[in-house]
Design a protein that fits this description.
Helices cover 45% and strands 17% of the residues. It has five domains: 134 residues, no CATH class; 226 residues, no CATH class; 133 residues, no CATH class; 132 residues, Jelly Rolls; 121 residues, no CATH class. Strands 5, 7, 10, 12, 15 and 16 form a six-stranded antiparallel beta sheet that branches. By secondary structure, the protein is of the alpha+beta class. The longest helix is centred in the C-terminal third of the chain and has 37 residues.
């Protein structure tokens, strides 16, 4: 054993020494890209990373510390089976280790993205190094990790936790195909299981397809060569079957609960065709392969849906080098064939509605559930990573070829870029907006334009001068190409995902403790409805006008009330239509006649077309709770026109002064019933969505939610909140009635205890008018965030006077929406069988009481007392895995109002218990244990057999 370890260490040392240069280059690029996180005080806190994976890791950490499985969690929506959810895996290896080290969820995600991207760089280098030079392997690794797919999906933690392990799976597949052994079969099963346990099912499937394509290209020649060796073939397919079974057993926690849950999700049936074609990759979008910001950035995007889902940028050099894949075909033919298959299939499938093949697959119902076809760019980016690595090696050998061969291969460099540009060149013939955007992007100040020509120039320079580099300098021009390609990728990806200041998100929300204390006081979690501007009336007037041009004969003074101590700047929309000389003076005054506290001078270069003037005064913050005057004056006729609107209130009037050096009386007489359009700029701290606990961030307050939940949620839950709480649709109907007003009874019945909304300054708070109680407010720049209590909320568990059986969920939602509905009088029930008629008939008046005595993730107990048989409703979501017991005896399974737990309880005192039991999880525990035992046997059996053989030989 000691000799084995010594050999491993010596081999590793030799490998690192031999490849020190390329590995050092990869490390440098990794350090540069993640330097803002390492030393810059920045973190990734955006989109799904913030609103899904951060709350998930918060819950996972609690479960791991308690040595429990997060089988069901009541905080996500009305309750959700987390192990079956198909989002971020609980058993993600690196995350399990970081949780064991008690790393906070926010820090865990930062270490995760840095760690997995480092793993991806190293793994792809090791795999490619078996086929190409060190520089070629470095280039392929950079393209794999920093290309558009992985940078665009950096916020999707459940993507990279699987895909960054793909190179190791490819390595395991290749080594297994060369020599199938028990150890290599075990490595294959472990890597496949780790990916399945970590990632999103769709991306795991894509990764396995990539591994299968490359594995088939590697294995088929080997199988053909060994076709006359049945013993080798038996070992190959036998160990392959063992690896497949083992990986299934080890990954059963990610597979079996998901398939148990699928029939009850919003993906239970085929997706609508419109959704299957959504996020299709238009051919003209290929321009973003070299100009990723051609259609805008994360905040201002005007291209096809959507900015991150269609990200595939690789830069010009990998595309040019990838064109050489057809050259020197005998060098690594398996990898070249695999790259071609992946590239072609990736393009054809990612095009979605623009692809005849994909359209046919959808129309013939072969594809029914794969959403977002644009994600097939994963295949394309991997193909470019492989082909670019092979292409660089090919380029390094071109100087040794005859002149005719070199010219032919030089010409082939442009094949791939030209092919990919066909769609864009075709579209631009008739799309004037696209042509105008092209002209805008060709501006000399666009760095992507310079990176394009720099890459082309360096390649041409390499082609012309490479033969003159001899000895140790031979690799210098190719090193420059690798650095240029990697630098381009880093330049593209540097700000693709906005980073936040760590200090701005250290305090997530001021409402967490208030909401959490509700749960501590009652023993039951609060339930939140959080959204932007739920019920508010913002004063608006659509009629806007331009002022005259500021000049010696026309000055403007606007009164502004400083409401906050952090007020620093005022923004004025302006129109500039002429060139001019001279300056415009903007003054800050306490009164119209006082000497200015501060003056800003605007030169002609400070104006451009239709713009917003941000005017920042140092003295502004000291004027809190006072009214000041912003004045615009000029000594010459200027082109500056401000915008104003009618305004009948007197607190912030505008003064149009048409006199030079006016008197005090003339200034007062110039007041108009109008106001300039302006916005007060307030610096803000913290993240807006985090402050009002949007999406799943309510989990941090140990609260559940009546709002948005990620894809693959309980289907009836999603339909319920969509119908009654306007989750993904306009909240105000055609009659001008807000969903929370129209469906207030449903809101009360669903147990919504608290609401949070953002309220623009100056807006009227409509939630107070309809009976909600204001608990807490928080000043967030130009808005105020408010927390409310719902005094009319029903208890977590309550009895209903009568139950009405409706077999279809849509019938129930229709009845609740369009028929008179009182939640304590009637509940619409589905279940294994209709409730008896006695429960549906109105008999003697119902006297009842229900108290939740135990509230745990997998069990809820309710002590009940009723004067007659009645239906108990518990306002948490349910699935058939929730079993009902009354006094520890099994009872029929019922669902109330399409989504909630329910039980038909006899008269008298009883204890109703809802208990979660998942056959899939029970089986997963057995399969995982069996898989671990089988894996141990697979690893030790060869050693045991070898020991027996040595013992027998020694005795003989």
């Amino acid at each position: 054993m000691r000799a084995f370890v010594k050999n491993i260490l010596e081999s590793t040392r030799l490998y690192l020494w031999t490849n020190a240069g390329p590995l050092g280059l990869l490390s440098l690029f990794w350090l540069i890209f993640f330097s803002p996180l390492i030393v810059g005080g920045k973190i990734y806190f955006l989109d799904d990373l913030k609103i899904i994976y951060f709350p998930l890791e918060y819950v996972y950490a609690q479960a791991q510390q308690a040595w429990e499985l997060p089988i069901w969690n009541n905080y996500f929506g009305f309750g959700q089976p987390l192990l079956a959810w198909g989002q971020l895996g609980f058993f993600t290896p690196l995350h399990v280790l970081l949780r064991a080290l008690t790393i906070s969820p926010l820090n865990l995600l930062q270490v995760s993205v840095m760690g997995y991207y480092a793993l991806g760089l190293g793994g792809m280098f090791i795999f490619l190094r078996r086929h190409v030079s060190g520089l070629g392997a470095a280039l392929g690794s950079l393209v794999f990790v920093f290309s558009g797919f992985h940078i665009g999906h950096l916020n999707h933690v459940n993507f990279y936790t699987a895909t960054m392990l793909l190179p190791y799976l490819l390595l395991a597949v290749e080594t297994f195909c060369q020599k199938p052994t028990a150890y290599r079969a075990a490595a294959l099963s472990l890597l496949a299981a780790a990916m399945a346990l970590s990632g999103q099912p769709q991306v795991v499937m894509y990764s396995f397809i990539v591994a299968t394509v490359i594995g088939a290209c590697v294995a088929i020649p080997k199988l053909w060569a060994k076709r006359m060796n049945p013993l080798w073939l038996m070992r190959f397919f036998g160990f392959l079957l063992v690896a497949a079974v083992l990986s299934f057993c080890l990954a059963s926690f990610a597979i079996l609960p998901l398939f148990e849950f699928l029939p009850f999700t919003d993906r239970a049936g085929a997706l609508p065709e419109a959704e299957l074609f959504e996020f299709s990759y238009p051919p003209f979008h290929a321009i973003t392969l070299i100009f990723p910001y051609f259609f805008g950035d994360h905040d201002h995007y005007v291209g096809p849906k959507g900015f991150q889902e269609l990200a595939a940028f690789v830069g010009i050099l990998p595309l040019l080098l990838g064109s050489l894949i057809f050259c020197q075909w005998k060098k690594s033919p398996a990898l070249r064939v695999a790259a071609l298959l992946l590239g072609v299939s990736g393009v054809v499938l990612a095009l979605g509605s623009h692809s005849a093949l994909y359209t046919w697959l959808v129309h013939t119902k072969i594809i029914t559930s794969i959403a977002i076809p644009g994600r097939f760019v994963f295949f394309f980016d991997i193909a470019i990573a492989l082909s670019a690595a092979l292409g660089l090696d090919t380029l390094m050998k071109l100087p040794q070829l005859a002149r005719r061969e070199r010219l032919i291969q030089y010409a082939s460099l442009v094949v791939l870029p030209l092919f990919l540009s066909i769609g864009f060149l075709w579209q631009i013939q008739t799309d004037t907006a696209l042509y105008a955007r092209l002209l805008t992007n060709m501006h000399w100040a666009n760095p992507a334009w310079w990176l394009l020509w720099l890459g082309v120039a360096l390649l041409l320079l390499t082609l012309m001068t490479a033969r003159y580099f001899i000895g140790w300098r031979r690799n210098v021009p190719y090193l420059v190409l690798v650095v240029a390609a990697g630098g381009t990728l880093l330049a593209f990806g540097w700000n693709y995902n906005p980073r936040a200041d760590r200090a701005s998100v250290d305090s997530i929300s001021p409402f967490i403790e208030t909401v959490r204390s509700f749960g501590e006081d009652t023993g039951l979690p609060a339930r939140l409805y959080a959204a932007e501007t739920i019920l508010a009336q913002v004063p608006t007037d659509p009629s806007t006008h331009r002022t005259e041009r500021i000049s010696p004969d026309f000055s403007v003074y606007q009164a502004i009330t400083v409401r906050k101590p952090n007020t620093s700047c005022i923004e004025f929309p302006a129109r500039i239509n002429h060139s001019f000389f001279g300056t415009v003076r903007v003054t800050l005054q306490t009164t119209l006649t006082d000497k200015p506290l501060e003056t800003i001078t605007l030169a002609p270069t400070d104006f451009a077309g239709e713009d917003v003037l941000r005017l920042c005064f140092n003295a502004l913050a000291a004027q809190q709770n006072r009214t000041v005057f912003i004045g615009f004056t000029a000594d010459y006729l200027s082109p500056l026109e401000l915008l104003y609107a009618p305004y009948t209130q007197n607190e912030e009037p505008v003064y149009f002064v048409r006199k030079q050096q006016p008197t005090s009386a003339q200034l007062t007489a110039s007041q108009k019933p109008a106001r300039l359009l302006f916005n007060v700029y307030y610096p803000t701290q913290g993240d807006r969505e985090a402050v009002f606990l949007a999406r799943h961030l309510h989990v941090l307050a140990n609260a559940s939610s009546a709002r948005w939940i990620s894809a693959l949620s309980i289907g009836n839950y999603r339909d319920f909140i969509e119908n009654f709480f306007a989750n993904d649709r306009p909240a105000v109907d055609g009659d001008g009635v807000h969903a929370l007003v129209r469906f207030r009874n449903e809101l009360n019945m669903a147990g919504v205890t608290h609401l949070i909304q953002t309220l623009p300054l100056g807006a009227d708070d409509g939630l107070l008018a309809v009976g909600f109680k204001l608990l807490q407010r928080y000043d967030f720049g130009p808005k105020e965030v408010r927390l409310y209590a719902n005094p009319a909320v029903l208890p977590k568990a309550f009895f209903v006077d009568r139950a009405v059986f409706k077999p279809a969920a849509d019938e129930t939602r229709y009845a609740m929406q369009y028929e008179p509905y009182e939640p304590t009088e009637v509940a619409y029930v589905t279940g294994t069988k209709p409730p008896p008629e006695s429960a549906a008939a109105a008999g003697v008046p119902l006297r009842s009481a229900a108290t939740v005595t135990a509230y745990e993730p997998l069990r809820v107990d309710v002590a009940t007392e009723t004067s007659r048989e009645a239906l108990l409703v518990l306002t948490d979501s349910t699935l058939p895995q929730w079993q009902t017991y009354i006094d520890d005896q099994p009872a029929p399974y019922y669902v109330a109002n399409t989504v909630f737990k329910a039980a038909l309880v006899p008269a008298g005192k009883h204890t109703v218990s809802f208990r979660y039991h998942s056959p899939a999880i029970s089986l997963s525990k057995k399969l995982t244990l069996g898989g671990l035992v089988a894996l141990a046997l697979l690893l030790t059996l060869p050693q045991f057999i070898s020991w027996l053989s040595r013992t027998a030989l020694a005795k003989s």
